[in-house]
Structures are given as C-alpha cells and as structure tokens.
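FORM 7B - TANDEM STRUCTURE REPORT

SECTION 1: FIRST PROTEIN
SEQUENCE AND TOKENS:
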Amino acid sequence: MSAKTTAILGKGGAGKTLVAAHIGMAFDYLGEKILLVGCDQKQDTVRALSPERRGSLMEALETREFEYAHVRPEDVIVPVTPYVDVLELGPSPVLVGHYAAVLDEAFHWFRRHDVLEQYAQVLFDVTDERWDAVLAPLFRRVQHAVAVTRENAESLFVINRLVRAIQIGAVEMNHPMTLVGLINNASRDPLAYERYLDQTRLFPLLTIPDLPELASLKAFHRTLFTLKSKNSGLQRIHNGFVKIAELLRGDPLNLYTVSTLPDEQIWRLSPAASLPN
C-alpha cells in the first residue's frame, strides 16, 4: 500500500522545518512509519532531528550518473527512530535553477525503489514560498498540504497565494493536493491571523506561541517528543501535533469551500493598518 503524502508549505522562515519535524515525531509517537523528505537546499530537515549527516539524494544520483538502481535507499536515508527516517533531496549543480526537475528526479527514484510503499506517511518539508511551476511536481503527486504562517502580512500573503494555487490546481488541472489547515507559528499578537481565518474560513490546526524553549531544541536535534518533562504549555503543543498526525492518518476533509482574499486586502489585516493616518 502506498504512503499517504503531505507537503508542509509556507513562506521562508515561517517555521516549516520545526513543524515538519514535530509532525514526524508525532507519527513516531503513534507508532506509524514515516519518511520526512527535506526539500530545502540548505538541508536543515535532518539537522532538526539527528546529528547524522549523509549525502543528499541529488549528490548520490549525480555521482552515479543518474543510474537510479545504483543509489540504494540505505545510502541516503537517515534512520532517526524505528519509525522515523529522513531523506534530504539536496541541491543539484546539474539542475541548478530547476528545482522542479529535482523533485521529478526524486519521484523517479521513489518509484524505482518502491520507497512510497515502505512507509505509512511521507512528509515533504518544502523549500520556500514559491507556489508556481517549481512546486508543480508536488501539486501533481501529493495528497495533502499543511500551511504554516506567522502573523505578519508577508507570511499571510504567501499563504493566500498558496491556497489559491491549490484550489486552481485541483479544480482546473485535477491535482490531488488539498489543504488540511493552517498552523500559526511563533504567535505573539494573533489579530491579523484571526482576521484572516474569519474572512477565509481556513481551518486552524494549531497556534504555537513564541517560546524560547522551542528555539533551543533545534540546536540539540531534539523535539518536544524527546523531552522527559514538559510544562503545561509545551504539553499542549505536543498534544496539538499528535492531533494533526491523527488527522493526517485519517481522511482529512476537502476544503475547497474556503475563500481567498484579494492581494491588497492582506495588507489591511494587521493592527497597524487599522489605525487612522
């Protein structure tokens, strides 16, 4: 049986890798086998969970002249726990400027080695905020998306464009990807985020407060799931990620009924935009 597939999308710096790592460890908590695929050329997905460093898939393919059979999964996949593996796609000097081609090569390699059949879930930690042809291979092949935002207008602007692209791809091009919901990361003043939810009817999955305890975990390749003790606030976030994993493990609703906003309206959501001149 092929894995269920989910992409973590959002503006660069919104916290997608933190979210992807914690959802991955939530599946570990539930005893479900998952492959976390890092699509960022900085290759920071594996660093969020493990000190081990293996070559990226693209490095291995280029070294072996794109002979898919000669790159074994164990050459490039890092085991983190008995249930969580991580694979970095990496950058490609050969395919520089064509990250869509990198994604296509990855899916060819997946098929050659039946990678998607080895896992219950495959989670893609997506490179940045681009929603155009660069991400078309994901839009064509991945079932679900979880969007990650911060509370500033720039991050919400990107989310709005991503939602619009997902809707257009699904309705006009029969892409399978559907949006599950929105995570608000590093929350301090959620007014703009709450206004956006009210006007678009997007489903709020989790609000993560801006906590130094979360920032400190990354340096030690840890998550909330590896902490022996947690205060009530951290436990609430832990439980929120488990609920997201349970949702993805099931059959999330198709949220085509959500609305998007005109671009210019995004900039009026912040509290500062509401003040008189």
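SECTION 2: SECOND PROTEIN
SEQUENCE AND TOKENS:
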Amino acid sequence: MDRNIEAVNQAIKFLRDHKGSPKILVKQIRNAGDSIHMTIPIHHYRIKYPNAAIAFIVGQWYHNIHEHNPHINGLFLADHNATPQQRLQLWPLIQNTQDIDIKIIASIHPFGVVYPQNRWSLPCIADQYFYNAGITDLKPLGGRKPIIRITDDDRNFAKAICNRHKVNRLVIFECYSYSKTPVWDNFKFERLASILQPHGVKCMTIASSSEQAIRGTISCTGITWRQTTALLGQAKAMVGVGSGITMMAAAAEPQPRIVELGIPSSVSMNGCGYAPSISINDPTIEDVKTKILEVL
C-alpha cells in the first residue's frame, strides 16, 4: 500500500511544481485494458486544454504501454496488484488535494461507491469511463480510438518476426478473457489454425509468459505490450476475447479486423466505438473460420 500512496504523493507534487494549467490527475492502476481506456479521456483533455499538466498514476506492469504517450506529462507507477479496497482508500487522499483542478478515477468497479450513478446505467463500458472522467456528452474530443505510441524498435521487432516466419496473411489469437476463463479450449484454437493454414494464413498466439501457446501457431508469449501492439499492426485479423490485447488491437496502426468471441455488445470494440469488429456469440470453429476468410 505504501507504494500506492507514494505514487499519489509524487504525482501531486509533480503537478504542483508544473507550470501547466489546469492540473489534471488521472489514476488507473489495475488491468492493461482499463489503463488503455484512459488514453481516450487523457487525449480529450489534452485537446480541450493544450497547456494542461496531466499526471497519470498507473500500475507498474503497464508502464510500457504509456511511456511514449505524448499527451501525458508525468507517469507515476503504483502496485498493479493492489486490491479494490486498497485502491479505494486512495480516493480521499486525491479528493482532499485542493490545488489539483481535475481529478479522474474512472473505473467501473469498485468506484460505484465513489460515483453512485455508476451502476451500468449507460449503454457501454466506454460511456461509463467517459462519464466518470467528466465527459458528460460522451463524445470525447479526438474520437474514441485508444492511443499506444510504439517505437521504431517495436516495429522492427514485429517485422523481424513476420519475416522470420515468412508471414503474408497473419491472424493473431488472444486465448483468454479478462476473467481468465477460456472462451474456447486450446483444441478449438488448434483446429482453427489448422483449417486456416491451407488458405495461406499463419496464426500467432499472443499471451503472457504464464499462458500456453496454441500448438500450430507462432508463439509470442511474454513479449512487451508495445511489441504486442506492433505485431497487431502487422495482422490482417485477430481473434479477441475481451481483455487488454483486444484493446491493443483497437489501438494498433493499421487496425486488424477484430473478431470477438462471446463478447457482450456493451464491452465489444464495435459497441464501444473503438474499432470495427465482428462479434460471434456461441462461436463454432466454422463460424470463426468463415468470418476470418471474409475479411482477409
């Protein structure tokens, strides 16, 4: 908990010392996808207040996502494993700081305690975030595209992998949902990869170092978030199951076509307005194969 308090205090001091105005403090320390959601409100306030000083408190594991974001003046690292109760305890420390002009904690849970109106009354998760970030018309300046700035090293990493494996038509699999409950078992992904191969498609697994790569795919487990985003920019399509990697696909340049498996419309990329997507409920292997070949 001390690390989180230190991160908040460092961000407050940074803003007090910064000449920019207004002074804006944003906190989102848990989950990659949640922190990427916040790039849209941050961009909104940068356009609205070009001279603002914006400090972002983020979980240390997600530093790699945000360190090159041009709209953030200061990035401060907290404990991404903090419990909801620990994170909620930081709110009075932020709220009681009088010389910060705009304070944003735009989570969905557990901050319904802070924002009683946040009870899934809005049509999608993006609108929930924007409303709690003070974007009351829910139309953020700069649009709804998430922002991840990658480097030339990230691009070269992605191109080198594609060249090594002689990739022409790439489809990326994200195999686990944000709840860590598999939407499909590995056999279905393996089967999908095998029936796409005769169509000149190579498949890739992107997952954490603790997750198992799908047999018959190019394994890219344990790479950085920015490298992941760069690889997604090389893909023709990705099969997403609703976690942070799906958000990264929406941020990639160019965007791959996103096929979402069993994702409610309230949290899908298309439903949130982040990227065109194809949602398939109760997906079969044949359904997903057909949709992927249609967009390649």
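SECTION 3: OBSERVATIONS ON SECOND PROTEIN
Residues 2-17 form the longest helix (16 residues).
Confidence is low (pLDDT under 50) at residues 110-114.

SECTION 4: SIGNATURE
Preparer initials: ____
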